[in-house]
Amino acid sequence: MRFISQVIEPRQVEIWFKKIRPVSLADSTLTVEVPSQFFCEYLESAFLDVIKASLKKELGAAARLVYVIRPVQSQQAMSYPQGPGDPPVNKSISVSTWQPSGNPGPFVFPGITKVQVNPRLNPVYSFENFVVGDCNRLAANAAENIAGAPGKTPFNPLFIFGGPGLGKTHVAQAAGLSIKKQFPDLVVLYVTGNEFKTQYMDAVHVRNKLTDFLAYYMKIDVLIVDDIQDLVGQGNQTAFFNIFNHLHQNGKQLILTSDRAPAELQNFEERLLSRFKWGLSVELYAPDHATRLEMLKERAFREGVQISDEVLEYLATRIKTNFRELEGALISIMASATMSHKDVSVEEAARISEKIVGEEEVSITIDKIQSIVCDYFGITREALLSTTRKRQIVQARQIAMYLSRKLIDNISLATIGSETGGKNHATVLHACNTVSDLCSTDRLFKKDVAGIEAMLTRTNR
Question: How far is CA 21 from CA 31, 36, 295, 373, 399, in A?
Fold first, then answer.
């Protein structure tokens, strides 16, 4: 501490280093306790050189520093997930190669036939850490069912799609982690579409390596491919088609994620797209207010940082697009609270969040939705609110009601109906169900709805 005090200003020492508690010193390994994972990560990013120099000075060149996270006991009791724990480990698999010097897979060295497959699963992405709401409940339930019986449910493959930051990777990895916990002997692998493509390209340039590449992937029991939309190119799609067929026919589980539905994937072989639709395709939506607020509370609790309910409520109301933006704003606010050593006000939260998501948004209203729908279809507001049964106007009216229910928090069907020419709640419910069904079956209709929603999102920034 004396050396650190000499090279770091007193305020930084007070904020960051006086909260560190020594736990043990064994040989050259010093174990210390810190308040939270965020605290640990900030120490490593901001003061790594100073910490290294101090350890070397006091303990010698072989010095090591180990962190443990201090339990949070001052907060209200609540059910909260276990800590990250150790990453899961797969058993070794045997891969036959064409020649002794062949490479048995994309992650191993030539000449090795016993392969230790790294699952590449992040323990933080567990079901316990996943906040479930109406926006993701179906995907979470399907993933949990799969985890209880991988390869034996109708959900094979499980195809999860949706925009960025909605939790696709989290749900997919949570299934993998749960499977490893319940079935330790199963070989699980998480890989991105881009990584698979790169591995394939490497394989085709080495004699006999492509065969080993295919043999490696066909040994996997649970294959999770994130961002499958990146798997463009005929060669790697052919390889993945063969791997998919082999795994599926042998009762192995496949979990795929994408930023769009299978029907909207571009430059994919039709035979591959048809297989993506064999199991369950489920979409993730933007989280509602209750889900956003619950996510903020759980993340703040996990990091051991006290954030007022007023600030969390502000963030949940302010940021509506996805979990990633919400989490980014919260992390910035936690950093501000930790460094300033005082509570963050709503005004400060507004200033911080503005840098992440832009200027304060104007609330989406029924009037605004109806106005943009009328502009999109080239009809008048009077026609939209009338009782006419002309097909174009009926569809525009139904889309307006559907988007009002989807985009406006805590609005009742009766309110939407009264603002749409005095319709009753049953009419509004029928309209919402009709639009939802058409979006699932009519690509052009879904494109219209998505286009209107994108216009509302842009003008709401």
Answer: 9, 12, 29, 60, 58
CA distances from 381 to 377, 401, 427, 432 (A): 11, 14, 19, 19
> Domain range for residue 63?
2-69
10 Å CB burial of residue 164 (0-12, 13-18, 19+) is exposed
The rounded distance, in Å, linking the Cα atoms of 184 and 172 is 17
Q: What is the pLDDT of residues 203-260, one digit of tens each?
A: 887 655 788 888 889 889 999 999 999 888 778 899 999 999 999 999 999 999 998 8
Q: Strands, E, within 259-328: which ranges? A: 280-283
Residues 123 and 260 in one domain: yes
Last residue of a domain, one of 297, 322, 357: 357
Q: Which residue is associated with the tokens 């070989």?
A: 187
Could you tell me if 294 and 248 lie in one domain? no
Contact 211, 177 (CB under 8 A): no
How many helical (H) and strand (E) elements, i.e. helices and strands, does the chain have? 19, 10
Confirm whether 349 is domain-assigned.
yes
- Give the burial class of 317: count Cβ atoms within 10 A of its Cβ; 0-12 exposed, 13-18 middle, 19 or more buried: middle
CB 212 within 8 A of CB 105: yes
We report the CATH number of the domain holding residue 442 as: 1.10.1750.10
Our count of domains for the chain comes to 4
Q: What is the CATH number of the domain that holds 10?
A: 3.30.300.180
Which two structure tokens, joined as six digits, stand for 57?
């000075």
Q: Cα 342 from chain centroid?
A: 31
For residue 227 the two structure tokens come to: 């961002």
What's the pLDDT score for residue 110?
43
The model's pLDDT over 446-456, given as tens digits with 9 standing for 90+, comes to: 888 988 888 88
Residue 332 has pLDDT above 50, yes or no: yes
- According to DSSP, residue 241 is labeled H
pTM of the model: 0.59
Whether the CA torsion 426, 427, 430, 435 is positive or negative: it is: negative
Of all helices (H) and strands (E), which one includes residue 30? strand 29-34
